[in-house]
Hints:
binds zinc ion; seven-stranded parallel beta sheet; 12% strand; 9 strands; 14 helices; alpha/beta
Amino acid sequence: MKVLQGELPDRVPVIPQVTYTTAQITGVGLIEALHSPKKTAKALLAGQRRLGYDAIYVGWESSFNLLAEAMGCTMRFPEDSVPQVAENIVKSPADVDKIEVPDPNSSGRLPLHMELVYLIKKKVKDEIPLFAYTPGPFTLAGQLAGVNPLMIATIHDSQFVTELTDLALEASIKYALANIEAGIDVIVIADPTASGSLISPTTFGTYAAPQQKVLVNAISQTGAFASLHICGKTMPMLELMAETGTKMLELDHLVDMAEAKKRVGHKVILMGNLNPTELLLMGTPKEIEAAAKGCIETVGQDGRYILSSGCEVPPLAPLENIRAMVLAAEKYGKFS
Ligand SMILES: [Zn+2]
């Protein structure tokens, strides 16, 4: 919280993006936890207690899937993974008008998520900062209409994309505000479909950034903090991302942190970016310590940096690897 408030902390904070990886500790099934906020809360709290990181990501599955389902998409529930959209609800531009903005306290499985936030907040009070995801409007639009149709529409049906992303924006704001009301400190705008791995900076600037900006503004006005999380390659749009007014950028492992620091470090707090698969899932604690040390030395010297994974930590990442990240922050990240 000191970093977010512009003060120098005692050391570089370490906040790996850990959610369902904590199922390893309590033994709860990935799908079983989805229907029990109590079991999810137990796992998330146990993860923080056991591994000692500085904040909790309150959630279990992608926020854009949860909202897409509440807005009418059909989901598939695989045994060993979190749910995915099976059938999109928007099949033609005329469908946009038929969809209602979901109520976080009554639509679909959103109330289960809200209960999870209440349970965790009740337990940690103001001792541990809480993060929660809300969908980037472009990504939620892709869930509602399908990513391919959305991409094609960015080329020939500007009005459809705007109407769809406006609807997604409204849903995302309502969800974010409910999360803040329930005690979340940092709203993470997850916008993977707006990645430079998928769209050009021009498309980003036209269809993703304007909605992100409105969302950031709605979050900031409450006194909570906004963090923009875009997976994959984001080097071409770092400035556009920083100009949304977000407090933080969560950068993936494909981003050169030193260059990001140079280009936007004066505007935003940077967070990242250990490789979730090659390092956290398949690497050793020694390799993780070295990579974390490198990040801290490169971008963590002025107190405007949070050590993290580049994206969500995979469900089967060894817990000792996450612990190695935390120990590295304690060993190399001290300011005094
Ligand atoms: Zn990501």
